[in-house]
Structure formats: structure tokens, C-alpha cells
Amino acid sequence: MYFKIRTGYKAMDFINIDETELAMAKRAQLTGKVAQFVEGDIAGNHIISITPNWNKEMGYHADYAMTGEDMESIPRKIQMGYRLLLENTNNEVQAQIEGRPIPPKIEAPNRMHTQGLTSIGDILKLEKKKCIVEDCKEEAMEKENYCKLHSFNK
Fold first, then answer.
1. Bridge partner list, 35
2. Which residues lie below 8 Å from residue 24, measured CB to CB, with a gap of 6+?
3. Residues 62 and 130 occupy one common structural domain
4. Residue 106 domain-assigned?
5. More confident residue, 140 or 37
6. CA distance 150 to 46
7. Sheet containing strand 2-6, strands side by side
8. Three-state secondary structure call for residue 97
9. Bridge pairing between strands 49-52 and 2-6
10. 18-69: per-residue pLDDT in tens?
11. What is the spatial distance between Cα 92 and Cα 82, in angstroms, rounded to a whole number?
12. Cα 64 to the chain's mean position, in Å?
């Protein structure tokens, strides 16, 4: 995974890092201290942002301006992996700076259709009505107050 550390507002004002240098970059950004990377040194107070380097990930030239179609061609799984790595690294570095224990890593949920709602009743959590006849414990029919047995005795 590749990331850009933006240090200016021009198109090429960044250095490339990989995931092994991400925590160091985030720590430098939060503390303002100088960090040494493979491609050079940066003072943390000069770091504007740390973002995925989609150009390098997709094999484009560094100064190529990606279009919306290019972004759509990046698989969602890869985008989610980048998002999770950034979020986990941010949480980890923040905890280390504050002296807290490192929180557990956030993992992407497995999304399967069968894990979702299966009916409108699941959304509304409708309770089943009971028959209003004394001592009857049967379920009432839909749109009525009586069970099947007592529905004829209205």
C-alpha cells in the first residue's frame, strides 16, 4: 500500500511512503516533530495530509490527474483496505501519544445478504397479538383480536 504525504499545494508537493512508514508519518503530523523517510525528511508541522497514493497503486505516472472513471476502477476491497489501515494507524498512534493502551484493530465486517433484514417485521419488531378471549393463549389473526378458534364466536 502506498501513501502520499502532502507538504504543499502544488501537484508534486508530496513524498511517497509505504504502509511501513505510515505510523511514523502520522506521529510526525500529530506531534510536529521531524520524521525521516526513505524519500526524505519532513517536519511534522509541514505535513498537510496523508492520503492513499492511487496513482502509484494503479500504476499511473505521479503527475497524472485521475478522473472519476479512474477512481471507479479501483476495487472497493482495495479502497476499504486503505481506509481501515489509515483509521487503525490513526487510532494506534493517537493512543500511543496519549499514553493509552492500543485499541483493538477495526476490521471490515463481512457483508452477506443473509445477515440483513429479511422482512419488514424485523424492522418494526411487531409483537404478536394474543386472542382477547379469557384463558386463550393462542395468537390472534392478522387485523383481528381473536385467534382462529374464537374468530367465529364474535
1. 42
2. 35, 37
3. no
4. no
5. 37
6. 78
7. 14-18, 2-6, 49-52
8. helix
9. antiparallel
10. 999 999 999 998 998 999 989 888 998 999 999 999 988 888 888 888 888 8
11. 15
12. 27
Q: How many domains does the structure of the chain reveal?
A: 2
DSSP, collapsed to helix, strand or coil, labels residue 6 as strand
What is the 3-state secondary structure of 27-76? HHHHHCCEEEECCEEEEHHHCCEEEECHHHHHCCCCCCCCCHHHHHCCCH
Q: Is residue 65 part of a domain?
A: yes
The model's pTM: 0.63
**Which residues on adjacent β-strands are paired with residue 42?**
35
Q: Which domain range does residue 153 map to?
A: 119-154
Cell numbers for 69, please give them.
Answer: 472513471
Q: What phi and psi values does residue 34 have, to the nearest 5 degrees? A: -80, 140
Task: Show the cell assigned to 19.
Answer: 504502509
Question: 144 lies in a domain?
Answer: yes
